Amino acid sequence: MAVFSARRKAPAEVEPLVHGGIRYETTVNGREFGFAQDGGVLLAFDEKSGEQLWAMQVYAIDINEKFERDAQICYITSITLSEDGKALLIRNERRKQFSVNLADRVVTPLE
Predict the structure, then answer these.
(1) Residues 89-98: pLDDT tens digits?
(2) Is 85 inside any structural domain?
């Protein structure tokens, strides 16, 4: 479970996005899903059953163990659908954007 220091506020909750019967959401506890980091993780669930379909790391976070871990984590701040409905557009706290292709889950960094 992610623990936040007094210097790091918990990230704002990100509104899940539902498309084609699948609910896409983020987590602040990526390590609980088997990832080496807490932020930058996207989850997909069947909207009807609630069953988790998959989890993926959208971007890597390089952690320097000399510094406080939670201050270095960069969380997802928004999930939106591309205009053509074929990709998820992900934005993080550092204002970097990524496109996740829904057909093959390939991540493309956006400028």
Answers:
(1) 999 999 999 9
(2) yes
